[in-house]
Design a protein that fits this description.
Layout lengths: L3 E6 L6 H12 L4 E6 L2 H8 L1 H12 L5 E3 H6 L3 H6 L3 E3 L1 H10 L3 E4 L1
Parallel strand pairs: 1-2, 1-5, 2-3, 3-4
Helix pairs in contact: 1-3, 2-3
């Protein structure tokens, strides 16, 4: 059984409630947790105030979300994500590293 989780948020405006649920789930886990925002979730982080608020709560708990630098560049939201202190990296390598390190992926 995994004792670490990689919470991957893929949902965006089309399923905002699901994306928020994933963030709040990560906020209240009791085991080692990493959060990855990918695709539409990155736009939510850049534009949605409630989503930003939960991201800030995660950071306050020392859970620093990662996001895809390539999507951030394509969507022209890189600076807004960096202002939130989100780590921008190629997401394929980021998720692969988490899996190699024993994190069980769960998606929202």
């Amino acid at each position: 059984m995994a004792d670490k989780l990689a919470v991957i948020i893929l949902s965006g405006n089309e399923n905002r409630d699901r994306a928020l649920l994933g963030l709040k789930f990560a906020l209240h886990t009791t085991i080692g947790t990493r959060v990855v925002l990918f695709g539409a979730a990155e736009k939510l982080a850049a534009e949605d105030e409630e989503f930003k608020g939960v991201v800030k709560q995660l950071i306050d708990k020392n859970i620093i979300p990662g996001a895809c630098v390539n999507i951030a560049d394509e969507e022209n939201i890189k600076e807004r994500l960096l202002e939130l202190k989100i780590n921008l990296k190629p997401v394929g390598a980021l998720i692969s590293d988490y899996v190699k390190d024993g994190y069980a992926p769960i998606t929202f």
